[in-house]
Amino acid sequence: MSPRTATTTAAVHPLLADRWSPRSFDAAHTLGDEELVSLLEAARWAPSAYNAQPWRFLVGRRGDTTFLRILDALVPFNQAWAHASSLLVAAVAQENVEDGVPQPGPSYDTGLATAQLVLQAHALGLHAHQMSGFDADALRASLGVPEGFRPLSVVAVGALAPAELLPPKLRERETAVRERRPVAETFFAHTWGTPLPVRP
């Protein structure tokens, strides 16, 4: 167990318990083609309603034009650390099918695909951090995202670097105790707010 392993009420797979979202990335690390394709394949094989696969991903490696455009769309707080990641991936959902009819749950399905990419990163010994702090309109304009598609999140992927490399405020977040809402306040049965009658 690493110091960042989640303290769970029941055993879960180490891939889930050990996954966390750092902000300190190794700015010297580069992502090889084999690793990159592995991440993309993990996302590609996610489940979706009617197998519609409403997700699209804008993928930039550090230093290339796509990376820089995605980085520019991030809020300053996220730019302050995400610039050191090896990869920035913008997850985009197709909201309507070709005839204009709304897709069934495109955000949900795109979230599943993104989660699979994140878990595959961890399986490869990398780390990933998902962000909602970005300017969707700026991203849409700079990377030519067409109408009917909505940018949902940006994921930074890379190799972990020491927390000490971060500014003090970010360092505090990096080393803070990992927490989640208790099971009894999250999972209900019978009626809303009634805890599920299970014991770990």
UniProtKB/TrEMBL annotation:
Q: What is this protein called?
A: Oxidoreductase
Q: Name one GO molecular function term.
A: oxidoreductase activity
Q: What family does the Swiss-Prot or TrEMBL record give for this protein?
A: Belongs to the nitroreductase family.
Matching InterPro entries, A to Z?
Answer: Nitroreductase, Nitroreductase-like
Q: List residues of the Nitroreductase domain.
A: 17-63, 78-158
Organism of origin is: Streptomyces gancidicus BKS 13-15
- Which key words tag this protein in UniProt? Oxidoreductase
